[in-house]
Design brief:
about 350 residues; 2 domains; four-stranded antiparallel β-sheet; Methylamine Dehydrogenase, Chain H; mainly beta
Amino acid sequence: MNSHHYYPKGGARSSSITRSPAAIPAEGVSSPPVPRIALNSHVQPAVSSSNPSSNNRQKNDSASELMMKSIPAPQFFAGLKTREYREHRSSNHSHTSIRSIAWNILGNRIACGLTDKLVRVWNPEKPEIRNSTELKGHSMGVDRVAWDPTHADKLVSCGGDGIVRFWDYRSNKCLGITSTSGENISLAYHPEGSVVAVGTKDDKIHFIDPRNTSQILKTHKEGTQTNQIIFSHSGDTLLLTTGQGHVVLRDWPSLEHVYTVEAHSSGAFCLELDPRGSTLAVGGSDAVVSVWDTKEWICQRTLRNMESPVRNLSISFDGAYICAGSDEPGAVNIDIVSL
């Protein structure tokens, strides 16, 4: 990926943004009125860290938010400096790829899941690899990493080896492992840090208590291809994308079906909620990102700037921008769009 595009509201590419009617409920789901689903956060978990700096972090976040709101995006991004963090090449001189990347809750550490079986934790202030931490133990490439939302030093990883590993990067040791007996392809922490959901390629979702990794709490089998899973900010709803292009909402912890959004005409790969839980972005195999109002479940916009299936989505901390990317062969663009 080597080209980046920013399209402001009403900009030159605004013709690619269309509006569509409300999603048609799936069979068995009641017609409007749409059920009221609280996706916003009503719990603010306490954050633990070996180096607490939450007050300074909040001040920095507030300053950054004011800066982004007062300076037009093209000028804002143009004024930022880049810093490169370079991986070692593997023993056979093949290229090491990053399969997953995640910031911790305080924004002072970055975790990367790598194809060479490692999890690497970087300090953004020290880009030299000698200052990073290697977490070893997986027998295959690491496809997903996620930080504990209540502890800035703990994280979880999984991959094709069927093992979920829980880490405290300070000790460079694995705190616990759980076997799902399947190829792990998705990973999500409950916002209270009490449960980790792991999706496998056989369309099963396994739920694990990080405090007791010796056993799986329960397993749910979906009736269709399941790609990415996330929890709502409130923790009351599990959202998942399917090969049919749908977003399925299930109540947590009962896992009863709540609602189905027909988001795309072909497979839906990834999804992301904005920080307020009022907007849901869904990326699909049709190279389109659909943006949904989670109150009425109406598609507000469709973003059609991608050239390849959308595999990854991220929304900025203030909900102002969305970034979409693809890992398909030949994919060369990352799009940054104003929401």
